[in-house]
Amino acid sequence: MTDSVLAGAQARPAPPIWPRLRRGLLGSPVNIAITLAMLALAAALLPPLLRWAVFDAVWSGTPQDCAAGTGACWAFIGNRLRFILFGLYPPAGQWAAGLASLILIACAVLTAIPRFWGRRLGLLWLVTAVSTLLLMSGVFGGRAVPTGEWGGLPLTLMLTLGSLGCAFPIAVVLALARRSKMIVVRSLAIGFIELVRGVPMIAVLYVAMLIFPLLLPAGASIDKLLRIFVALTLFVAAYFAEVIRAGLQAVPAGQREAAASLGFTPWQNLRLVIMPQAIRIVIPGIANLAIGILLNTTLVSVVGMMDLLNAAKTSASDPAWIGRYDEAYLFVAVIYFVIAFGGSRYSLWLERRAGPR
Amino acid sequence: MADVLRPDHQRPGLLIRISEIVGGRPLEQVGLLFGVLLLFAFLADNGVASMAKLGIAPGFGFLSSAANFEIGESLIPYSAGDTYGRAILVGLLNTVLIAVCGCILATVLGTALGIARLSGNLLLAGFVQGYVEIVRNTPLLLQLFFWSVTIRALPGPRQALTPFPGAFLSNRGIFIPAPSGSLAGWLIAALLIATLLGAVALTQSSELRRRRIAQGALAVAALAIVLIAIGAANGSLTLSLPVLKGFNIAGGTGLSPEFATLLVGLVVNTSAGIAEIVRSGIQSVARGQWEAGSAIGLSRGQLLRLVILPQAMRVITPMLTSSYLDLTKNSSLAVAIGYPDLVSVVNTTANTTGQSTEALAILVGVYLALNLSVSAVMNRYNRTTALRGMHPR
């Protein structure tokens, strides 16, 4: 008896598809009405959409070809692809910017594979950061490219991954400080985290743009991109610290006590016992944070950086192709969606993998 | 000796209590505090020196000097030449307006979507899931740009779309009917007070007080009905319908294209999150609760109202709070699409006066205050729904 009940609970076979479909679409009068309404909605919306995006679309040609047609102008995307992907980056050096993007994407993918988790990843990211910066600054192309000309996909990826990586050590310190018994340390950490989490990211970016330069000693100045990067890193660190704090709270107290009774010093205890477990617990949370940062880096366009979204918007104001906003936005929306959706599925997969052991 | 032999039940001495609060290493902590203060002093000194070089006197005196810029839309009378303080107040009111409208509409739409996701119809559930995934995995700013282009692509006033009689969708904005006449202000005030009282009633933990305040809200609502009746009878309250006049639409009340863009963008974006919150909240209620409820003969409506929702609200409320806070903070993206919210006005102020530190300090202070007040209201409401056993009192 018990055995059969348990077996039923553990491995319930998925019900066959046809009865499930019939119950889900035609189960009751209300259900039938909803199904019909949804079909009517699809019949009203899908044909015009498909006609615009596929059948009446102009896939290649000149602006005049597009103006003659009534559908989407994908020729515009083909023509302005380099600008959308790389912004104002000099065309002769765009191979370097492309290579930098590929290296960043490859590194992110490698980091996502659990088999490679370990201390060597830190080294990998150090090498990646240095080589990306060298590639972008145009050292290998013979002509120096100032940061003001960096843009498009490489800029978005660098801001996302760079701020996440640089925020990590700050976030660890903040998370530990927030759990400290020492009142000054704890209060400073709480003050910083809640202040940053309480204001919109735009306000933080404006602080970087308007106030950072005022606070420097006379004569000193820092690059605009670097200012924005520092502000973004501090912003991310506050959210990251809360993610790590959740992980620290989830490590059972017995772990610390057991390690202490084995003679670990507090520092060893933290480094070898607590932190590795805490980080492992919050990896899905870090993946979600990374997606949030990717989507929020678009805000740097408000303070004038030529990120992927701003490059798409600017390309649509090109006099020859003017007004092709729908196509430009749809194209970059797909890029953002593919990365973010992939990331959120990965995070779910990790959670499920870590769950029942 | 007497000290050493102190009985255990005596309270610990003042020094011990202080050292417990301080938490060890007092000297190092004082050093840290001193270091942080020194850093701030260094930065402030640099700041004052830089401002002096630019010929700007630090301080908030600029708030009472004349602001020579127009603001597109405003809840209170404002024109170029009024003070900067008033301009910032206009921006703040615009932010509050968009946040309140956005939170209400996003809650309605999100709840409907969350319930639709659980409806059991595969097509509807799949549609909602697709909506949620698309909205959550694309940047909000991109969505706002998209809505901006879409609203600008609406037909002009002469060919405006009319989804129902009396409402116009056009590229000049969205126009809906509004009450007008000498009693209109009183009517709007009465409705606002009734809504406010209703919201306060929700936050009361005692059943008796909740009922009393709700009765007050009903009384004010009844007053509003009386106002409508009197106004309609003697003509001091009429419904102003938007109508096409020449090349534009007159009458009624209009939402500017920027306001409409921001409102639609924020509502769509936040409703996707709220749909997920509502779904997970309802699914968090154990299956046995449904079964037990129907076993004692509750109807489906009673079951939802009396058994499921009170338990689901415990999970939903804290998450809803952070959705509202996110919406309020996200409304700052108004600056990218030209709606004059607080951030936009403060940015203009900082650029025209050069008092960027003071202007941004006001901005940060206002957002912290808004955040704290939204969480204070929601925490009060949360206390009425939380598990009683877990929190004594």
TrEMBL record, chain A:
<dbReference type="InterPro" id="IPR010065">
    <property type="entry name" value="AA_ABC_transptr_permease_3TM"/>
</dbReference>
<comment type="similarity">
    <text>Belongs to the binding-protein-dependent transport system permease family. HisMQ subfamily.</text>
</comment>
<dbReference type="GO" id="GO:0022857">
    <property type="term" value="F:transmembrane transporter activity"/>
</dbReference>
<feature type="transmembrane region" description="Helical">
    <location>
        <begin position="121"/>
        <end position="141"/>
    </location>
</feature>
<feature type="transmembrane region" description="Helical">
    <location>
        <begin position="198"/>
        <end position="216"/>
    </location>
</feature>
<keyword id="KW-1133">Transmembrane helix</keyword>
<dbReference type="InterPro" id="IPR000515">
    <property type="entry name" value="MetI-like"/>
</dbReference>
<keyword id="KW-1003">Cell membrane</keyword>
<dbReference type="GO" id="GO:0043190">
    <property type="term" value="C:ATP-binding cassette (ABC) transporter complex"/>
</dbReference>
<feature type="transmembrane region" description="Helical">
    <location>
        <begin position="228"/>
        <end position="248"/>
    </location>
</feature>
<keyword id="KW-0812">Transmembrane</keyword>
<feature type="domain" description="ABC transmembrane type-1">
    <location>
        <begin position="153"/>
        <end position="343"/>
    </location>
</feature>
<keyword id="KW-0472">Membrane</keyword>
<feature type="transmembrane region" description="Helical">
    <location>
        <begin position="328"/>
        <end position="348"/>
    </location>
</feature>
<feature type="transmembrane region" description="Helical">
    <location>
        <begin position="153"/>
        <end position="177"/>
    </location>
</feature>
<dbReference type="Pfam" id="PF00528">
    <property type="entry name" value="BPD_transp_1"/>
</dbReference>
<dbReference type="GO" id="GO:0006865">
    <property type="term" value="P:amino acid transport"/>
</dbReference>
<protein>
    <submittedName>
        <fullName>General L-amino acid transport system permease protein</fullName>
    </submittedName>
</protein>
<feature type="transmembrane region" description="Helical">
    <location>
        <begin position="30"/>
        <end position="50"/>
    </location>
</feature>
<feature type="transmembrane region" description="Helical">
    <location>
        <begin position="95"/>
        <end position="114"/>
    </location>
</feature>
<dbReference type="InterPro" id="IPR043429">
    <property type="entry name" value="ArtM/GltK/GlnP/TcyL/YhdX-like"/>
</dbReference>
<feature type="transmembrane region" description="Helical">
    <location>
        <begin position="281"/>
        <end position="308"/>
    </location>
</feature>
UniProtKB/TrEMBL annotation, chain B:
<feature type="transmembrane region" description="Helical">
    <location>
        <begin position="359"/>
        <end position="378"/>
    </location>
</feature>
<feature type="transmembrane region" description="Helical">
    <location>
        <begin position="174"/>
        <end position="202"/>
    </location>
</feature>
<keyword id="KW-0813">Transport</keyword>
<dbReference type="GO" id="GO:0043190">
    <property type="term" value="C:ATP-binding cassette (ABC) transporter complex"/>
</dbReference>
<protein>
    <submittedName>
        <fullName>General L-amino acid transport system permease protein</fullName>
    </submittedName>
</protein>
<dbReference type="GO" id="GO:0022857">
    <property type="term" value="F:transmembrane transporter activity"/>
</dbReference>
<feature type="transmembrane region" description="Helical">
    <location>
        <begin position="214"/>
        <end position="239"/>
    </location>
</feature>
<comment type="similarity">
    <text>Belongs to the binding-protein-dependent transport system permease family. HisMQ subfamily.</text>
</comment>
<dbReference type="GO" id="GO:0006865">
    <property type="term" value="P:amino acid transport"/>
</dbReference>
<dbReference type="InterPro" id="IPR035906">
    <property type="entry name" value="MetI-like_sf"/>
</dbReference>
<dbReference type="Pfam" id="PF00528">
    <property type="entry name" value="BPD_transp_1"/>
</dbReference>
<keyword id="KW-1133">Transmembrane helix</keyword>
<dbReference type="InterPro" id="IPR000515">
    <property type="entry name" value="MetI-like"/>
</dbReference>
<keyword id="KW-1003">Cell membrane</keyword>
<feature type="transmembrane region" description="Helical">
    <location>
        <begin position="27"/>
        <end position="44"/>
    </location>
</feature>
<keyword id="KW-0029">Amino-acid transport</keyword>
<feature type="transmembrane region" description="Helical">
    <location>
        <begin position="87"/>
        <end position="113"/>
    </location>
</feature>
<dbReference type="InterPro" id="IPR010065">
    <property type="entry name" value="AA_ABC_transptr_permease_3TM"/>
</dbReference>
<keyword id="KW-0472">Membrane</keyword>
<keyword id="KW-0812">Transmembrane</keyword>
<feature type="domain" description="ABC transmembrane type-1">
    <location>
        <begin position="92"/>
        <end position="378"/>
    </location>
</feature>
<dbReference type="InterPro" id="IPR043429">
    <property type="entry name" value="ArtM/GltK/GlnP/TcyL/YhdX-like"/>
</dbReference>
